[in-house]
Design brief:
Elements (H helix, E strand, L loop, with lengths): L2 H8 L1 H15 L6 E8 L6 H6 L7 E9 L5 E9 L10
Antiparallel strand pairs: 1-2, 2-3
């Protein structure tokens, strides 16, 4: 099962509840949190193949993550469509 079908089946609210409960049980106390984002292609064709055909990706799924430096746990996440500025997601 791919991540997107699991995400659709469980729903964002349920995944968020699991994250909050897990972090609460672990008693996470981080002094430093690292932020990162990455893009995921929505199709099956590689970027190389698309560029050979003269096409380029105009939209992709963007994943934004906050990771605890000491624990290496993902403390928060958000997804959106790219391209776009990552800073608009920091307030959440």
């Amino acid at each position: 099962m791919c991540l997107t079908s699991a995400y659709r089946r469980l729903g964002a609210g349920y995944i968020r509840q699991m994250l909050v409960r897990l972090l609460g049980q672990l008693g996470m106390r981080e002094q430093v949190i690292a932020l990162d984002s990455t893009g995921f292609c929505v199709g099956d064709a590689s970027v190389y193949y698309q560029s050979r055909r003269g096409r380029c990706y105009r939209h992709w799924v963007k994943g934004l993550y906050a990771v605890g430096v000491e624990s290496k746990y993902i403390l928060a996440f958000r997804s959106d469509w790219g391209p776009g500025n990552d800073s608009v997601h920091l307030s959440g």
